[in-house]
Amino acid sequence: MGGDSLSAINYSTSNILEFESVMDVDLAIVQFMVNKYAKSKYIRPNVIKASSENVLKNLLLYRENVNPLTIVLKEDYIDSADDMLKDLNKTYEKEILELAKPNDVFRYVKNMEETDGIIINTINCRNTQQKQLINTIDKDIRTCVDKFDISDYSCLFIKDICTIPFYRNLGGKYIFILNCKYNLDENYVPKVGIMLAGGWNKIRTIDPYIGLIIPKGK
Predict the structure, then answer these.
(1) What is the pLDDT of residues 3-57, one digit of tens each?
(2) Which CATH number fits domain 3-23+102-206: 3.50.50.60, 1.20.140.160, 3.40.50.12710, 3.40.50.720?
(3) Residues near 131 by Cβ (< 8 Å), separated by ≥ 6?
(4) Over 7-29, what HEC string results?
(5) pLDDT at position 3, please?
(6) Is 190 exposed, middle or buried, given 0-12, 13-18 or 19+ CB atoms closer than 10 A?
């Protein structure tokens, strides 16, 4: 994880983290597609034949589009990726969540939980299924559902930089985004246009996988 971002965490008192910033739903979606549709004409052979999970993680880190299906589908079918993702999430959410594992941001959440109350973390879920999964993994971690008013929090952890405008009462916060190419411009720094929506905030990147990182811009 980025060194400057960790120092910022140490000064936090209350953090709110999106479910998908700590749970690797994207990898779960890719694995679900490979398991269910390996013989489909739509799937890229290099994804089906990936030699390890790390290969898939690298493909996810370097993708330009936030939709994880863009690394799975052949070029001729990319235009259908968004509609397909909606259908997958609607029809197979249970099966996908069963494959989802914590990423390495979650490990930092656990480390922060050992501060005797100095740092308090809350996982922001989209529905009760996600909330139940977090509670199953660790019953002591605080959870909430669809919390967009962050006036009571010091730090916000999100998967996709484009979701910043959906949050209310931003200002004077640390905003941590996953260090993935879809969040960055051609110089590997957070996309400027979206950063401006953050107001008086400090935006940092944080790596979802230990040992697998993409370049950090200046």
Answers:
(1) 444 445 454 478 999 999 999 999 999 999 999 988 888 999 999 999 899 999 9
(2) 3.40.50.720
(3) 125, 143, 144, 145
(4) HHHHCCCEEEEEHHHHECHHHHH
(5) 44
(6) buried
